[in-house]
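Bumping with the actual sequence this time:
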Amino acid sequence: MTIAFLLTTLVVVATPGAGVLFTLSAGLTGGRRAALIAALGGTLATVPHLLAAMTGIAALLHSSALLFDLVKYLGAGYLLWLAVSTLRQRGAFTVDGAGPARSTRQIIVSVLLMNLLNPKLTIFFVAFLPQFVDPHAPGALSRMLALGTVFTVTTLVVFVGYGLGAVAVRRRVLDRPRVADWLRRGFAASFLALGLLLTRAQP
C-alpha cells in the first residue's frame, strides 16, 4: 500500500457524490440513526463492485457498451426518482417523531440501489485498483482484496463523518423552515444533476 493510493482513495471517497448526498439528507431528516444506517448502506454497496472487479465481471461490463448503458441509465433513472421524491416532500424537513421515520431496510435498500447502479464505481475498481496491483506477481488477488478493503473502510469513515456532521447542524436547519425547504430543493437538484452527469459516463 502506498501514500499515493491512500491519498487518491481519500479524494475519491470524500468528493461529494450520490452516496454523500444521500447520507447528508438522511442525517438531516432522520438524525444519527438514519445517518449511520445510510453510511453503512453506502459502504456495503462498494463490496459487490470490488467482487465484480476481482472476478472479471466488471471488465465485461466495462467492455460491453450495451451492458454499460443499461446499468448507466438505470442508475440515472433512480437518481431522477430520488430527485422527484425529494421535491414531493411537502413543507420543511421533519424532526424525529414529527413524521413517519424510514425503516432501516428502506434506507439501506435506497442507498444500495443508488450505488449498485452507479457504473462510475465499477470504472473506479477497473481503472484505478489495477494500477496498484501487478497482475503477474504472486498474491495479486489478495493484494487487490486488501486495497479494496481499505477503500471500503475509508468510505465508511468518510460517510459517517458526513452523516454526523449533518446531525450536528440539523436542529439549526430544522428551526428555519425556509432554509430547510431550500436545502431540500438543493438535494433534489443535486440528485438530478448527478443523474444527468451519469448519462454521459463512458466505459
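The C-alpha cells above came from a reply further down the thread. Residues 91-99 have pLDDT under 50 and may be disordered.
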